[in-house]
Task: inverse folding
């Protein structure tokens, strides 16, 4: 036990003597968390707050185009810039100056009116509320109209989808209103008389099962666990580099000639790097709780969750350290351990659902995600942060994380003993 | 006593043996020099004796303890001064020595006393709390030596302990080694400094191509070799003048 404590103290000294490394170890994960949350939060808010300039070419100049313009202006997410020429608008989008140009075709309002009036007349005739019109009016063919959307090729699919859905919804609403108005005009001469209530009858409410009815997780609740876990796993890099350095300095050789087990040497590293993980985690929580609100981001809600959060961070840290010990044991140089470790963390993060939720992955990748310790850690964090889980609910995930640590460390020790067997 | 029997080592993928069927007996309280050109097998032999390398065949025992059956016990009785400094540059001399001393199971007042005594004897007392990265080559070599003798080993292996150091540091190191030897420590050391070995060692063995070419007291070897007036001439006569470049 004395050797373990002395090894831990030595690791502590090595860590605090490297101020640059220490700063990187603690500051970079915080910078990562802040940047990612800010970026993701702005994406989250795109529809609500951020004004994206788009071009509108109104060749219709009627009630429909006026309504589209008003709707876009009210959405507060888009800034409408009017252009008169379709060609000019297309050129500007092509150059990447604008994300989108909307071209409202000529005669859209009048043709929509004609189409709706014809349909309403037809219905009223069927009900015997109107005399039959002449055959010319009945056979009048109105060509379907097309609102053209020109997107910058670099525009992300998610933005395109949200714009297309928005316009689709807007057009449906305009069509319905036009139909209601046409009926209103046909059924009464009194404009003040309201026959139809045009307000939506069906609405939806978002509710989190098992939580307060008013509680909806914000972007911070999603981002902090994911990116905290990502940062925790980046401990692999400094840890493996620390071990490679010892090999290069010859201190590992000296230790091999001494009556001390490799497990004791690794134990010292595990203890000190676990403390680093927990300090990192604490700093990230503090950032989420205290700094995010001042940056205009939603505050991290950790009420009644702290013990479980620390339990999860503890086991996630162990899993990351186990992997770092294994890489540090096997790798022969920093050139091997650093790129391999960094890439592995990114792959594990991708598989674990840090970038893209697991449920949207292809079935093979969903299966593979089950072997990523980051997936276990992320699920445990989501259980605590978003699903109000108790200890019993996170036991499967933290057991897997512990098992992963034990397995990695065991392989590291066996590999070392085999390699250096005398 | 160190008894080596038919010890061989062939590295993986190598075409030849680094050490081949080497047998040797080193007596207690000897200062035994292993001399030889580059690639002769000196470091390989010391690495096997200090439990860093697994022999391909053969066996050895130190003070009656067989290396295969008493590996951990043996580690407590031997000290190794490696060719590299094998120290943590960002730790102080005291912190390095405290750590390596603790790994031998030493602790508390006893460890502290041994550290301070070692530092004082080798003239580094006032640098105890300076970081190793600020030390000169000679100072690092002396710390390297202290780190290997804190547990007062019965046998001390030194792999070129005076390479790259100034005359003063070399003298301090050799003086201290003689002092340890007088106190009962058996010393086995490798060196390319034949003049140093001639005066420092009680016996030497010249190794070439993994085998012992000759062994004995330096003065006897000089007498036995026709036309030789010193150990360097014996060495050249026994190993030849061909360059030993290999990769």
Result:
């Amino acid at each position: 036990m004395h050797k373990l404590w002395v090894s831990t103290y030595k690791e502590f000294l090595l860590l605090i003597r490297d101020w640059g490394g220490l700063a990187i170890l603690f500051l970079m994960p915080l910078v990562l968390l802040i940047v990612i949350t800010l970026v993701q939060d702005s994406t989250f808010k795109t529809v609500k707050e951020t004004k994206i300039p788009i071009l509108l070419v109104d060749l219709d100049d009627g009630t429909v185009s006026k309504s589209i313009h008003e709707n876009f202006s009210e959405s507060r997410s888009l800034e409408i810039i009017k252009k008169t020429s379709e060609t000019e608008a297309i050129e500007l989008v092509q150059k990447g100056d604008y994300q989108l140009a909307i071209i409202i075709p000529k005669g859209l309002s009048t043709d929509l009116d004609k189409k709706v009036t014809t349909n309403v007349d037809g219905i009223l005739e069927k009900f015997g509320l109107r005399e039959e019109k002449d055959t010319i009016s009945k056979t009048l063919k109105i060509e379907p109209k097309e609102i053209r959307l020109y997107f910058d090729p670099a525009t992300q699919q998610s933005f395109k989808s949200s714009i297309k859905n928005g316009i689709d919804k807007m057009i449906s609403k305009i069509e319905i209103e036009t139909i209601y108005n046409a009926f209103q005009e046909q059924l009464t001469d009194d404009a003040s008389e309201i026959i139809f209530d045009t307000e939506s009858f069906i609405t939806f409410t978002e509710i989190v099962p098992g939580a307060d009815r008013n509680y909806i997780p914000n972007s911070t609740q999603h981002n902090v666990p994911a990116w905290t876990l990502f940062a925790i796993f980046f401990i692999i890099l400094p840890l493996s580099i620390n071990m490679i350095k010892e090999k290069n300095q010859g201190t590992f050789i000296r230790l091999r000639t001494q009556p001390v087990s490799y497990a004791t040497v690794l134990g010292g590293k595990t203890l000190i790097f676990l403390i680093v993980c927990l300090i990192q985690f604490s700093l990230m929580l503090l950032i989420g709780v205290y700094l995010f609100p001042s940056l205009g981001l939603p505050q991290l809600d950790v009420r009644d969750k702290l013990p479980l959060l620390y339990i999860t961070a503890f086991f996630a840290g162990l899993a990351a350290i186990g992997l770092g010990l294994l890489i540090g044991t096997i790798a022969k140089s920093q050139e091997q351990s650093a790129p391999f470790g960094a890439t592995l963390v990114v792959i594990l993060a991708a598989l674990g659902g840090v970038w893209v939720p697991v449920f949207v992955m292809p079935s093979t990748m969903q299966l593979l995600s089950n072997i990523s310790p980051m997936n276990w850690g992320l699920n445990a964090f989501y259980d605590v942060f978003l699903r109000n889980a108790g200890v019993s609910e996170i036991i499967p995930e933290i057991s897997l994380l512990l098992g992963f640590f034990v397995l990695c460390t065991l392989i590291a020790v066996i590999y070392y003993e085999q390699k250096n067997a005398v | 006593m160190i008894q080596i029997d038919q010890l061989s080592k062939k590295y993986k993928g190598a075409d030849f043996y680094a050490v081949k069927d080497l047998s040797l007996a080193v007596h207690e309280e000897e200062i035994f020099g292993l001399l030889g050109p580059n690639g002769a097998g000196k470091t390989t032999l010391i690495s096997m004796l200090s439990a860093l390398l697994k022999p391909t065949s053969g066996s050895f025992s130190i003070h009656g303890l067989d290396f295969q059956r008493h590996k951990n016990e043996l580690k407590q009785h031997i000290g190794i001064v490696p060719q590299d400094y094998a120290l943590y540059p960002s730790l102080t001399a005291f912190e390095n020595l405290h750590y390596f001393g603790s790994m031998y199971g030493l602790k508390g007042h006893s460890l502290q006393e041994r550290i301070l005594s070692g530092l004082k004897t080798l003239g580094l007392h006032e640098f105890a709390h300076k970081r190793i990265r600020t030390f000169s080559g000679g100072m690092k070599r002396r710390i390297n030596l202290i780190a290997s003798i804190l547990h007062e080993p019965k046998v001390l292996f030194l792999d070129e302990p005076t390479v790259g150091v100034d005359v003063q540091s070399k003298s301090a190191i050799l003086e201290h080694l003689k002092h340890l030897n007088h106190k009962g420590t058996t010393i086995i050391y490798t060196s390319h400094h034949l003049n140093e070995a001639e005066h420092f060692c009680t016996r030497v063995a010249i190794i070439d191509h993994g085998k012992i070419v000759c062994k004995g007291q330096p003065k006897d070897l000089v007498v036995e070799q026709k036309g030789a007036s010193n150990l360097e001439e014996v060495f050249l006569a026994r190993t030849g003048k061909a360059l030993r470049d290999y990769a």
